[in-house]
Amino acid sequence: MMMNETLQASPLPPGLYIVATPIGHRRDISLRALDVLSSVDMIVCENKKHSHKLLDCYHIRKPLHTYHDHTSQAMRLRLIEAVLSGKRVALISSAGMPLISDPGYKLVRTFYEHQLFVTLVPGPSASLSALVLSGLPTDRFFFQGFLPLKGWRRVLDELKPLQATLVFFASVPRLVGTLTKLYNVLGERSFVVVRELTKVFETRFEGTLSPSPTLPSELKGELVVLVAGREEQEKKAMDAQAMDDLLKTAITTMSLRDAVREVCDVTGAPRDVVYKKALTLRKAT
Length: 285
Prior knowledge:
With 285 residues, this protein is of the alpha/beta class. Helices cover 40% and strands 17% of the residues. The longest helix has 14 residues.
């Protein structure tokens, strides 16, 4: 027998309620999320204008406060004081699951440090939704989010040996640059880009990482980029003596940095392991 459930505010204990919101289609919000948002005393969000649009759709009128992780500790303590006085606070992001490439970690940490109640109202996640749609292996994956503007090569060097689907976020202006960086470190691998998830113009396209990736002519919105993990046979590292021989040759013909990178590319061995071995060999020569 099916039961009709009506949306109604229910008593909630004081605390922090982390609430997932739709990543595109507004009807993807859960009944429980609407119930909680209708019941709390205030809502902290990343972008007031964006959040107002969602809340207005469901006639939810609550005080909105902007929050970012670079917000001062004083702001976090004000929210702590509000809960200590009996208030209920909801944390939402502009889209999807809060804290996943979005603000909130420091706020949650502060609540735990004060031994206050924290709970989650789960819901949509762009990274998981794109992974399901990608057609790439889903049994193991690593979520990176946006590549940093500085230190991106170090990040990709760490991800290169993983035998898991890699999940990145990218904006349209940075997509070509991101794919090029991925190729420069990861080499030729299958990739998938998913955009406008759950919206009318939801699109998925795939290809192979290359120096000049071929992309659709018109792209809008936030993108999720997924890259195939390293194949098992590529992951196998060479034995110690073979690595020593390769390093000995490399450090005599190129700089230490380039030699380490070359051996990492060939063997798939972790950079810190190869670097330590290279330093030892150079001192011995």
